[in-house]
Design a protein that fits this description.
The chain is α/β, with parallel strands linked by helices. The protein has 14 helices and 17 strands.
Length: 462
């Protein structure tokens, strides 16, 4: 069979998005068949003249849309029931309402707009401004690491600046820790449903994943202990606060249990706490109970702005230098200019004020969701940016996502989050932050409600 190679010139935007769009369009137009195996990341990268990372991001985006599934050692396959391709005009000529992207509203409140203007003006007058356009110190400039320690300490952790490393956002943190702590073929345990970006990173580094059963409070300790005894795992990756996608918050007592089990079995914990500061009240991170074996990270994407691209890794005592080498090998460094803006806002109180605005906006958007989807079964956290919508019979997750796409609204089906060969629940993730206004959010949620009420129609298998 001739190798599939997409025509990237037909699609605008970043190349990884062009790869995802080409997969979607070629499926819809019959040039690709459901169940077919796609080229390896390396082969496609060589044919397109792009990096392997670009292909990996493209495949990950296609998987997030429900188009692909992948298994370590077997390859990447087109799903048997792929979503219908919907052009950027929507089904009725209106713009598509994208409820599939999980980030805070890109609406600059007065606090953030005023702070940005003041910060940029102040930076332009600084005598040391040229230093912010050069390479920072390894692991980040000292003042930025101190600000990162301050930010992390607000979660209840004892964070020391010498243990904090600056990176380019949480995805960079995941890649750095995978590359630094693990080797190809190692097994990583995670929740049975998990963040698709982590799955993409694991695939890139040839790591194996095993999903651990969950309940309403997150990762089940009994299932985790059994996996530790039987699976030969090296690490645990988990999102204990406003879990993606289920929105659960793990209680503190369970965090203690997970930490104790991991330490007893020599399992390294990689704690993704990107939502940590969204709730006003929160349990202490797992790292508080296993500080010697937990690599903790958080950042600015969910609280301040996703485009700021600053993450903070808290390494166990004595491990910072090793992680710093990983950061240097992958991207050399973060942007010191972005890190300076984040650090300035953390020091002068702007970051805390913006976080309060984020909570307030999230609460308003959740109120709209409850109003429009009030009759549906929903899991949500009032300070989070997404909800988990359980579908009534006879709906199935992928057919519902395809049906809403036809109406002009995008959501993420459950199989994008399933680990290894786990069974996908009949649910979809609905992100409330992406629409630029409450009016646009209302329109998108209204289309979801209409789809639920109408039920499956001909052409969408159940």
């Amino acid at each position: 069979m001739t190798m599939w190679v997409p025509e990237l010139s037909r699609h605008s935007g970043p190349r990884y998005l062009a790869i995802a769009e080409a997969i979607s369009q070629d499926l819809a137009q019959g040039r690709l068949k459901p169940g077919a195996r796609l080229p390896t990341h390396r082969d496609l990268a060589d044919h397109l003249g792009v990096t392997v990372g670009t292909v990996s991001r493209g495949y990950a985006e296609a998987a997030r849309r429900g188009l692909l599934s992948g298994e370590v050692g077997r390859g990447t396959f087109l799903r048997q029931r792929a979503h219908e391709y919907v052009p950027l005009g929507g089904a009725a000529g209106e713009a598509v309402v994208d409820l599939s992207l999980n980030y805070p509203p890109l609406v600059l409140g007065e606090t953030q707009r005023g702070a940005f203007e003041r910060t940029v003006a102040a930076l332009s007058r600084r005598e040391d401004l040229p230093s912010l356009f050069g390479y920072p110190a390894e692991a980040g400039n000292a003042s930025h690491r101190e600000a990162g320690a301050d930010w992390i300490a607000r979660t209840g952790l004892d964070a020391r600046a010498q243990q904090v490393l600056i990176c380019s956002g949480s995805q960079h943190a995941i890649a750095t820790l995978f590359a630094t702590l693990l080797k190809p073929g190692d097994l990583v345990l995670t929740e049975a449903l998990t963040y698709p970006g982590m799955k993409a990173a694991a695939s890139l580094f040839y790591l194996r994943l095993q999903g651990v059963p969950m309940d309403g409070d997150g990762l089940r300790p009994d299932a985790f202990e059994y996996a530790c005894r039987t699976a030969g795992a090296k690490a645990l990756y988990c999102v204990p606060t406003i879990h993606n996608p289920t929105t659960s918050v793990m209680p503190e007592e369970r965090r203690r249990e997970i930490a104790s089990i991991a330490e007893a079995h020599g399992i390294v914990i990689i704690e993704d706490d990107i939502h940590a500061l969204l709730p006003e009240e929160r349990p202490r991170p797992i790292a508080a109970f296993a500080p010697q074996t937990t690599y903790y990270f958080t950042g600015t994407s969910k609280t301040l702005a996703p485009g700021l691209r600053i993450g903070f890794i808290l390494a166990p005592p004595g491990a910072a230098e090793r992680v710093a080498r990983g950061i240097r090998a992958l991207t050399w460094s973060e942007s010191p200019l972005m890190a300076e803006i984040a650090a300035t806002w953390i020091r002068d109180g702007t970051a805390a004020a913006i976080t309060v605005e984020r909570r307030r906006e999230a609460a308003a958007r959740h109120a709209v969701a409850r109003e429009i989807l009030g009759g549906a079964q929903i899991d949500a956290h009032p300070s989070g940016h997404h909800l988990w919508l359980h579908l009534p019979e006879p709906w199935r997750s992928d057919s519902f996502a395809a049906a809403t796409s036809r109406r002009g609204v995008k959501v993420t089906p459950s199989d994008a989050f399933v680990v290894d060969r786990g069974i996908a629940p009949q649910a979809v993730r609905v992100c409330l932050g992406a629409p630029p206004s409450l009016q646009e959010l209302r329109r998108g949620l209204g289309l979801l409600a209409e789809t639920l009420a109408a039920g499956p129609t001909e052409g969408f298998p159940i």
